[in-house]
Amino acid sequence: MQQTVTLLKGDGIGPEIADAVREIIDATGAPITWEEAEAGLDCYHKHGTPLPQETLEIIKHNKVALKSPTTTPVGTGHKSVNVAIRKSLDLFANVRPAKSLPGVHTRYSNVDIWLVRENVEDTYAGIEYMQTPDVAQSLKIITRPGSEAIMRYTFEMARAMNRKRVTCVHKANIHKMSDGLFLECFREMAKEYPDLHADDIIVDNACMQLVTKPEQFDVMVLPNLYGDIVSDLCAGLIGGLGVAPGGNIGTEIAVFEAVHGSAPDIAGKGLANPTALLLSGIQMLQHIGFYEHASRIEDAMRLALVSGIKTRDLGGNASTKEFTRAIIAELPKQDDSEYHEPNPIRYSNKITTSKPKTDWKLVGTDVFVQSATLPDVPTRIGKFELQQIANRGTAVTKENAHDILLVDVFRCRYMATEDITEMDILDVLREVTSAGWKWMHVENLHNAGKNAAYSKA
Ligand code: NAI
């Protein structure tokens, strides 16, 4: 099965390491045809955009891409190519393997973790507001379809890679609704994969365990923000960003790239270490099902590192070309008897859709009003009663108002005393406004009692 792969050589050290990786993959005899496409700083200078539509179309057409680093100007200039690719192709999973490498000095020699980070939702949806000049709000968005997609991918990947354990990392003890939903989707999905051991851990404990006993973890799945932080922690365990690969995966399309940047300080000097991009290339080969080619490269790279042939950043004195040649020289010959049909990680057709709550019922509203002190809002409005006023999530009363630090946004919770519709909420807003209060934000509340679909804190 011939596979066409889009190659984005990027800029800075990008072209040097891209050429090295291509040469090594080609030396394995992997049936890959490369199609180069432009992206990055040079492309920006040439075409006025760092990511032309044509490049996106080529990536979409070939479905698999290997991307070398691209420079993002700080403060001015164009946006990050990585973010643009991730967003425009809806690459919802960021997969970062962290495996100890021989010859790369770190505290641990036995790390072998596949970390899957949700790549689209959470606080990264970028939905932020200044409620008043003193109060900023960032919404943490976790959805059932988004969580199901990441869980499906994680379990399918774990199975295809012969992994044994999948651990969901969360903070559902505090973020009961958002991380709670993420964890619920994990537990539901785990039932379909009885061959994999599924468990979960709170993110702070996960960090502590990772820096004390990292070998206990196998596959980990995290929401976006924790994934961002914990994936760099894992990279630190195996020698830093210079040897950290990654893949951005969507339902159809996957783009693999090194975690490090374009290293302009060493560009063009022949010093760049191609390891991280090579590991991304290995990950890409596994993704498309060429496991045998992937494992031969991995073996050869390990042998080269063990023999002491390393680039300067790893404490050696080999050039990019010398390191590349050493790996190719160590490549075991292809054993045709070992050949297996490619077994790509397939999952896109299995993503299920959301199951909305059947008893979804409007029961009240939270109106956020601006006030320097405890606001004297109406206690009864039509079908509603004022149940609570809170500030920064803490209930405020006349008694405790002087004991806690108050900011100028108060949440006034009005609960319905009879059946209501959205029209009734307008009465609340009208009355609160007529009473002279400025409001900047409203959240409707659904389902009372034990099934409350809102936070009671
Ligand atoms: P960087 O990762 O490019 O460099 C940091 C340090 O690590 C430098 O001293 C560099 O020489 C060294 N280094 C990085 N990769 C190396 C390699 N393969 N071999 C040997 N040494 C290596 O980070 P920096 O300097 O913050 O960013 C440079 C540019 O790269 C910026 O424009 C940034 O926006 C962009 N960038 C691009 C990324 C991508 O395309 N995936 C990711 C991160 C940054």
Known CATH architecture of the largest domain: 3-Layer(aba) Sandwich
SSE sequence, one letter per element: EHEHHEHEEEEHEHEHEHEEHHHEEEEEHE
Binned strand content = 15-25%
From the alpha-carbon coordinates, what is the Rg to the nearest angstrom?
26 Å
Output the CATH class name of the largest domain: Alpha Beta
What is the tally of helical segments? 12
- How many extended strands? 18
What overall geometry do the principal axes of the alpha carbons give? elongated
Low-confidence stretches: none
* Cα end-to-end separation: 56 Å
Bound ligands, each once = 1,4-dihydronicotinamide adenine dinucleotide
Mean pLDDT, to the nearest integer, reads: 92
Which percent range fits the helix content? 25-40%
CATH homologous superfamily designation of the largest domain: Isopropylmalate Dehydrogenase
Structure overview:
By secondary structure, this protein is of the alpha/beta class. The chain has 3 domains: 1-92 and 246-340, Isopropylmalate Dehydrogenase (3-Layer(aba) Sandwich), CATH 3.40.718.10; 107-238, Isopropylmalate Dehydrogenase (3-Layer(aba) Sandwich); 362-456, 2-Layer Sandwich (Alpha-Beta Plaits), CATH 3.30.70.1570. It is built from 12 helices and 18 strands. The protein has helices spanning 14-27, 41-47, 53-62, 81-88, 144-160, 178-190, 203-212, 224-237, 275-287, 291-306, 320-330, 422-434, and strands at residues 3-8, 32-37, 64-67, 93-99, 112-118, 128-132, 135-138, 165-170, 197-202, 219-222, 245-249, 254-258, 362-370, 380-381, 384-391, 394-395, 409-416, 438-446. The strands form 3 sheets. It has a 10-stranded mixed β-sheet, sandwiched between helices. Strands 13, 14, 15, 16, 17 and 18 form a 6-stranded antiparallel β-sheet that branches. Strands 6-7 form a two-stranded antiparallel sheet. Strand 11 and strand 12 (254-258) form a beta hairpin. 40% of the residues are buried. The mean pLDDT is 92.
